[in-house]
Amino acid sequence: REKLEGAFPLESVHADTADAPDVMVALRWNPKPNRYGIPGQIITDATRGTGKGSHASLSEFDVHNTLVAAGPGFRRAMLNDLPSGNIDLAPTVLHLLGLESPHKFDGRVLSEAMIGDSAPPRAVTETLEVVRRLPSGRWRQHLRISRVGETTYIDEGNGAFAEH
Q: In the chain, N or C: fewer CB atoms in 10 Å?
């Protein structure tokens, strides 16, 4: 919650709510395959045993997923790489049912996947960077986010230490 050199403020990922933690941590990662041959090795892979997963990385391999939707309201055989997330499911389902929520959602209606919607929305991507200078070097980290309308998605984030 407190401003700290080399750390992102919670509001950069819309996590500045009253019940948010004081600190959020994401482990460093690299594109090397882990012991199972899957790209996206994270710092805990050396000590993590079989069946003991970790959801502590902002690796593009962890945060990018596939969403499959089928039904009378959806386009057939449509592929797209606009960001989407679990936060989009409720507004999309309510839209399909013709219902309105009395509350504003964090997510959006996945209109690009719907029959009859013409122009797909656009994503605007931005990379945020922070640095912390230490006696032995510099810690630098980045966070790549995309916005579609008012909805923000984390695309990828990582950090690295460089000695002087």
A: C
Per 3-state DSSP, what percentage of the chain is helix, strand, and coil (rounded to 5)?
15, 30, 55
DSSP-assigned beta bridge partners for residue 160:
140
pLDDT at 46: 61
CA distance 140 to 133: 9
Nearest to 114 by CA among 125, 98, 131: 98
Residue 109: strand, helix, or coil: coil
* pLDDT tens digits, one per residue of 7-64: 888 888 778 889 988 888 888 888 988 777 888 888 775 666 656 666 668 888 888 8
DSSP class of residue 63 equals H
Q: Give 72-114 pLDDT, tens digit per residue.
A: 889 998 888 899 999 999 999 999 999 999 899 999 999 999 9
Amino acid at 71: G
What pTM does this model have?
0.82
User: 3: which residues sit within 8 A by CB, 6+ positions away?
Assistant: 9
What are residue 88's phi and psi, to 5 degrees?
-90, -15
CB atoms within 10 A of CB 133: 11
Task: Report the C-alpha gap between 19 and 78 in whole angstroms.
Answer: 38
Place of tokens 């945020």: 128
